[in-house]
Design goal:
Shape: globular
Strand content: 5-15%
Bound molecules: pyridoxal-5'-phosphate
Radius of gyration: 23 Å
Number of strands: 14
Oligomer: single chain
Strand order of the largest sheet: 1-9-8-5-4-2-3
Order of helices and strands: HHEHEHEHEHEEEEEHHHEEEHHEHHEHH
Helix content: 25-40%
Number of helices: 15
Structural class: alpha/beta
Largest sheet: 7 strands, mixed
């Protein structure tokens, strides 16, 4: 048995994994044609035809809505903007509560703050890392306005259960679908099951336009409000006769024609880009199945996981070495994994000090909801001890590399006793 690279042996994979580049000739040609047209953005912030943006922005929206089977798609300059716009469109007011998971990109949990909303953190299911519907049910109060579910790492949250909770309490279900384009629950795409779904097109996602985001909804009124928040709604509400102007003070969240042109090409190839990465993740999962103490990502019956992250869980109690040493050993073999994802987001200084927009006058300063350590024990355990992450979308992995990754995992696993000795020596 060969020596672990961490302890001086040869690594299984001896060169860095190549980066995936989804930008090809079609995208280059699309960008060139926008540049030659001179129309780099088609928006105007007042009531005229250009209020809705240029031809490529509208073209992308039309194709996106068709591809995902929704009535409306509203392009934004990022998913972060889309999340803020969703909170605006819903009419979130000071003191309204929005239920959020503690594990996500920070934009998910800060978006209610802009309108004075109070994020209420609810714990995760340990299997899928998405919101636990039973815990959500216990957290709903008369002040709850929305549930913001994240289809984390590319796997659907329990959207049906969350949907029925939302209906029962007459509140909204919003899906942060930034990590899960083309993920499915049965024959439905994630992002299309809530009242509004938000996709990201930033550089790190499965398909991208550099920066960009798209909100989808079947509701005409919500679509219009999203457009008004996107583009200086204050100038337009009178002309189009909007009665409830709550939160329709607008921003400039507009997508450029360049981004939209790239987005149209990326959407055409989306199945291919997603499937390639999905296949790598599935090979890794098959490779670790049966290794004691290691659990590949769960896929709920009837769901399609698109693996923004491939999350490997360690049964730390039975494993013999710490997750962090296991991760170091894997990295030494050439398998780039990270220990955990992000600290549970209520631990950010903004929640610890309860200081957001307006400093400590913000409603979170007086809110009763907890932001202390211990608020979401499952998320804390996953982050601190259990989960290792590998990000398939950023690498271009062929058969040879995939085999190497599995071999690296097996090699470290086979050498757990050696690693445990080394950990003891390190501690001494
Ligand atoms: C990437 C991401 C975002 C933010 O996307 P941007 O387009 O960069 O603003 C939001 N939520 C989640 C879950 C993400 O992964």
């Amino acid at each position: 048995m060969s020596e672990l690279a961490l302890l001086g042996g040869d690594p299984v994979i001896d060169s860095p994994l190549p980066r995936y580049n989804s930008i090809g000739d079609a995208e280059v040609a699309a960008l060139q044609s926008v540049a030659e047209s001179g129309l780099l953005s088609g928006f105007y912030g007042s009531w005229r035809d250009e209020f809705f943006g240029g031809p490529r922005v509208r073209g992308l929206e039309e194709r996106w809505a068709e591809r995902f089977g929704v009535n409306h798609a509203v392009a934004m300059n990022s998913a972060t903007s889309g999340l803020y716009a969703a909170m605006g469109a819903l009419g979130i007011r000071p003191g309204d509560e929005v239920i959020v998971p503690p594990w996500s990109m920070s934009a998910t949990v800060v978006c209610p703050l802009l309108y004075g909303g109070v994020p209420v953190f609810v714990d995760l299911e340990s299997e899928t890392f998405c919101l636990d519907p039973d815990a959500v049910a216990n957290a709903i109060t008369p002040r709850t306005k929305a549930i913001l579910a994240v289809n984390l790492f590319g796997h659907p949250a329990r959207l049906d259960a969350l949907r029925s909770l939302a209906e029962r309490h007459d509140i909204a279900l919003i899906e942060d679908n930034a990590q899960a384009p083309l993920a499915q629950d049965g024959d439905r795409y994630t992002g299309t099951i809530g009242d509004i779904g938000i996709f990201s097109l930033n550089y790190h996602k499965h398909i991208h336009t550099g920066e960009g985001g798209i909100c989808v909804t079947d509701d005409e009124d919500l679509a219009r409000r999203l457009q008004l928040v996107r583009n200086h709604g204050e100038n337009v509400v009178k002309a189009i006769g909007i009665e409830d102007i709550t939160n329709l003070v607008g921003f400039n969240f507009r997508m450029t024609e360049m981004a939209a042109a790239v987005g149209i090409e990326q959407l055409k190839a989306a199945d291919l880009h997603v499937r390639r990465r999905q296949r790598v993740a599935e090979e890794l999962s098959a490779g670790v199945r049966g290794l004691a103490g290691l659990r590949p990502p769960a896929v709920r019956d009837g769901c399609r996981h698109v693996y923004y992250m491939w999350a490997l869980s360690l049964e730390t109690d039975r494993f013999g070495v710490s997750r962090d040493l296991f991760a170091r050993a894997l990295r030494a073999e050439g398998f780039p994994v990270a220990e955990g994802y992000v600290q549970p987001l209520y631990l950010l200084p903004l929640f610890q000090q309860r200081n957001a927009f307006g400093g400590t006058d913000h409603p979170i300063a007086r809110a009763e909801t907890s932001y202390s350590r211990g608020t979401c024990p499952v998320a804390e355990r996953l982050e601190e001890k259990e989960v290792l992450l590998f990000q398939p979308p950023i690498y271009d992995i062929d058969e040879h590399h995939a085999k190497g990754l599995v071999e690296a995992l097996r090699k470290v696993h086979d050498n757990i006793d050696r690693l445990a000795e080394a950990e003891l020596e390190e501690a001494a």
